[in-house]
TrEMBL record:
The keyword DNA damage belongs to this UniProt entry's keyword annotation: no
One Pfam family it belongs to: Methyltransf_25
Species per Swiss-Prot/TrEMBL record: Micromonospora parastrephiae
Gene3D superfamilies assigned to the protein according to its UniProt record, in alphabetical order: Vaccinia Virus protein VP39
Keywords for this protein: Methyltransferase, Transferase
Protein name: Class I SAM-dependent methyltransferase
Length: 247
């Protein structure tokens, strides 16, 4: 196999999931999401669906009340990874990965996950409005979205846009749309550092293995820019909130 074959696969290779989230924090969120036997779980913007797979397993997949899940994303490689993970855990009969736009999905579910994908709906408010139509009555939504820990710098706004709000604004956006906040927690600094490090790690390792590859200089520049932006501009400034919502 040629060295160039490894670059695409290295992009998310060291990431558990594409969000700042520890194992312990994920377990807490799944408990608060409270997936019941026989529930239907939907993950919009699922990536490779690691949290979706865990949610389905938490609900139970044996007997007549087996939990089932659907993950929706536009990244074919991520969906393929999700299918491999599902097969490896004997969940392929219970979880389907579908290529599609998150905002176009209309089939409702009992438990819905949407983490870091508000942009696919046109922003936080539009996402919270749209997601209300796919959460069944009595269901729950796990919504993950960015917020500012403190007033942003112009450099941070240039990267992330001017629509990101403070945590209070994010909570208010949910409340004014009829959602009740059943749980609120935020990513801590270690979770953020691990997220940013693992986002870089696969390609950092590729660079060390194939320093003479024709694309090495371009990849090195991209990774250096991302690390510089994180350390200099938004580390400790950009937050990620996880809200378990009901209505």
């Amino acid at each position: 196999m040629q060295p160039t074959d490894h670059l695409a696969a290295s992009r998310y290779a060291r990431m558990r999931w594409n969000t700042p989230l520890s194992e312990e924090h994920a377990a807490l969120l799944l408990r608060r999401l409270d997936v019941r036997p026989g529930a239907r779980v939907l993950d919009l913007g699922c990536g490779w669906g690691e949290l979706l797979l865990r949610a389905v397993a938490a609900g139970g997949v044996s007997g007549p009340l087996a939990t089932r899940g659907v993950g929706v994303d536009t990244d074919d490689a991520a969906l393929a990874r999700g299918r491999r993970l599902a097969t490896g855990r004997s969940l392929n009969r219970h979880v389907a990965f579908v290529m599609g736009e998150a905002a176009a999905w209309q089939e409702p579910a009992d438990r819905v996950l949407c983490i870091g994908s508000a942009h696919a709906f046109g922003g936080t408010g539009a996402a919270l409005d749209a997601l209300a139509t796919v959460v069944r009555p009595g269901g729950r939504l796990l919504f993950g979205d960015a917020y500012w820990e403190r007033p942003p710098t112009p450099q941070a706004e240039q990267i992330f846009g001017t629509e990101v709000t403070a945590l209070a604004g994010l909570v208010e956006a949910a409340r004014e749309r009829g959602w009740r906040v059943l749980h609120l927690s935020t990513a801590d600094q270690r979770e953020w550092d691990d997220f940013e490090s693992t986002w870089l790690a696969g390609r950092q390792e590729w660079l060390l293995t194939y320093p003479e590859d024709p694309r090495a200089a371009e990849v090195r520049a991209e990774l250096d820019d991302r690390l510089r932006q994180y350390v200099d501009t938004y580390r400790g400034l950009l937050g990620l909130a996880y809200l378990v919502l009901g209505r």
